[in-house]
Design goal:
Layout: H1 18-31, H2 71-77, E1 82-84, E2 93-95, E3 105-107, E4 113-114, E5 125-127, H3 181-189, H4 201-207
Antiparallel strand pairs: 1-2, 3-4, 3-5
Length: 240
């Protein structure tokens, strides 16, 4: 037996043919619904409709790059200290340029060490000492080229000396050097620049001690404090 529940409409009373008519009317009403954004009749034409999807990268600078279309390029160029194992679930951190995944050490507001199981309300800072794998070299680039006295060849170029060079491959001399922890400290400090877009500076500035001090005035176009050490301002980044 089919049981129809009363909905408060006298025209759709239980039994007989009225529920059937109500059902047909509802189906006709739904069939008339159309959420197509195109004018009526366009679906019957020989037209390919497609969403506009931007595929070109916006930034290749890792400081400014927070766009999914950038990652196929930046992930092949830059390697962070840590990454996630591509298969393990739940997610597990694995070392990349770091020699190992380190555990933090905790200190209170007075800078005194705390045990690993200290209550969160007592922890003022979490300090990570991240060792970097030795022997990692930058890709050859003219910025690293030096002369016989160890001076950079292209760091003090004068107007006109660039000549017809258009890419790094056009320079006669190339060079490289080893990756060190200070390079990661420099990358953190670059988030304070106003020369490029830095989408997560405000987030980093709240958790990296001392980084907020490098924020330049809003009307400044210079990166201030770049030559200083964040560790001098209390940044928990240890270079070794």
């Amino acid at each position: 037996m089919h049981r129809f529940l009363r909905s408060g409409s006298a025209g759709c009373a239980p039994g007989g043919w009225r529920p059937t008519l109500c059902g047909l009317a509802l189906m006709c009403a739904l069939a008339a619904c159309d959420n197509s954004p195109h004018p009526p009749g366009d679906a019957a034409t020989n037209t390919l409709f497609s969403a506009v999807i931007e595929t070109s990268p916006r930034h290749l600078d890792p400081t400014a790059s927070y766009w999914n279309n950038d990652t196929p390029y930046t992930y092949q160029i830059y390697e962070p200290p840590y990454g996630y194992h591509c298969l393990k679930r739940p997610f597990q951190l694995v070392p990349k340029t770091a020699a190992q995944v380190v555990q933090p050490r905790y200190v209170d507001a007075a800078g005194k060490p705390l045990p690993d199981d200290a209550p969160p309300e007592q922890v003022a800072q979490s300090i990570y000492d991240v060792p970097i794998k030795p022997g990692i070299l930058f890709q050859p680039h003219p910025a690293f080229a030096v002369d016989g006295q160890g001076r950079h060849r292209y760091h003090a170029m004068k107007p006109g000396e660039l000549a017809d060079r258009r890419t790094p491959l056009d320079f006669e001399q190339q060079g490289t050097r080893e990756l060190v922890a200070e390079d990661f400290v420099y990358a953190l400090k670059r988030h304070a620049t106003t020369r490029v877009t830095t989408p997560i500076f405000s987030t980093f500035a709240e958790v990296v001690v001392g980084l907020k001090a490098y924020e330049p005035p809003r009307n400044s176009r210079r990166l201030v404090g770049l030559s200083g050490q964040l560790s001098e301002a209390g940044c928990p980044v240890s270079c070794r």
